[in-house]
């Protein structure tokens, strides 16, 4: 099975590459903007892919015809999405449209790709939980609005698809471009700072 990951330099992307590259039944294509930032570049193919560029998506998807695409790439800085709305929409919604459109055009009797898209619990307002898949979304930030739009694009597509809504991804990866909640807490505690963590909804938010 050929699996292509977008955003392979990111937190989730890197974890998926390291997990999948050791699976002998998987032929793995890791893709991200610019250079590969993973220390171990063995056991998979790396291609530079900017998913906001339609032609770039077209050429890489056509070249590999992956059976499964795991779309982890996104503009994930919630504050930056608020101030750079055009970029956020392009990155989180339009890029999904590009991928779906290319895959739909490649789909035929012998090629039927499965698009797996990463979304977020932020599409909900966090006022109650636990939540069902059918819960009505109520995005409170621009980041959440862009992610909800992406979900709508995926749900309406003519591909096999799945949406995974993750909650506060954390961990350590190679050449990290940004921190995460657990590292932030660790760093502050190491500096002797007193932290006030407010548990608004134990199923949902920190
Ligand atoms: N982190 C969380 O707590 C959390 C919570 C809920 C949902 N999610 C969702 O889970 C997914 C993965 O999140 P993550 O934590 O792994 O995020 P991340 O570490 O920020 O990784 C996202 C990756 O996307 C890449 N990217 C940005 N623009 C791109 C483009 N135009 N083309 C190709 N790649 C591009 C970034 O590249 P650069 O490194 O070069 O900037 C980054 O490596 C996202 O869809 C996010 O919305 C995350």
Helix-strand blueprint:
Layout: E1 2-6, H1 11-20, E2 27-32, E3 45-48, H2 54-64, E4 68-71, H3 78-83, H4 85-106, E5 114-120, H5 142-156, E6 160-166, H6 181-190
Parallel strand pairs: 1-2, 1-4, 2-3, 4-5, 5-6
Helix pairs in contact: 2-4, 4-5
Bound molecules: NADP nicotinamide-adenine-dinucleotide phosphate (NAP).
Question: What do these coordinates show?
Answer:
A 6-stranded parallel beta sheet has the order 3-2-1-4-5-6, with helices on both faces. The longest helix has 22 residues, at 85-106. The protein has 206 residues and is of the alpha/beta class. Strand 5, helix 5 and strand 6 form a beta-alpha-beta unit. The chain has a single domain, classed as Rossmann fold (3-Layer(aba) Sandwich). Helix 2 packs parallel to helix 4. The model is unreliable at 201-206 (pLDDT under 50). Helices cover 36% and strands 16% of the residues. It binds NADP nicotinamide-adenine-dinucleotide phosphate.
Task: Give a short overview.
This protein has 206 residues and is of the alpha/beta class. Helix content is 36%, strand content 16%.
Q: What is the percentage of strand-forming residues?
A: 15-25%
Which hetero ligands occur in this complex? NADP nicotinamide-adenine-dinucleotide phosphate
Helical content stands at 25-40%
**Secondary-structure element string:** EHEEHEHHEHEH
> What is the makeup of the main sheet?
6 strands, parallel
In CATH, what is the homologous superfamily?
NAD(P)-binding Rossmann-like Domain
Question: In the CATH hierarchy, what is the architecture at level 2?
Answer: 3-Layer(aba) Sandwich
Question: Which spans have pLDDT < 50 for at least 5 consecutive residues?
Answer: 201-206
